[in-house]
Amino acid sequence: MSTPLSRTSASVKTRDMLIGALLRVPGQAIQRRIIKELNAAGFADLRMPHMPVLQFPGPDGVRPSALAERAGMSKQAMNQLLRSLERLGYIVRSDAPDQGRARIVRFTKRGRAVDAKMIDVLRDIEREWSAELGARSFAQLKKLLFRVWESPLSR
User: Fold this and answer.
1) Which of 29, 31, 100, 153 has the fewest CB atoms nearer than 10 Å to its CB?
2) This prediction's pTM
3) Number of domains composing the chain
């Protein structure tokens, strides 16, 4: 019989962490690093709340409703983020060809520059993680995460 985990971070030992935290905490650290480096690269107006739109696979060519579903948020909340990114010059929304009233999101030149910078940052992070964990362990980690990604576990 297992004992319930305490919710206070001071009393949780690393070995007691469950899979949700083990995936969430590094993911949040990666997102914070991306925003920090984007800000330093001249995209100072981007913030963490923009990440659901910018994160892989990105918004280019996607309908706002699909972005909302992907991010697990309401259409209204997603449209608020899209308005913000549109005002800041990272995206445009336009009518989807042959789809009635449907709209699609497209990166602007500035948005494509952000996307390219994010890829650079993520490659740097992967190199750092590989150096920290060792190339073999990092490759194994990615292999296991790909298996989870492609399985029904992540649906």
Assistant:
1) 100
2) 0.84
3) 1
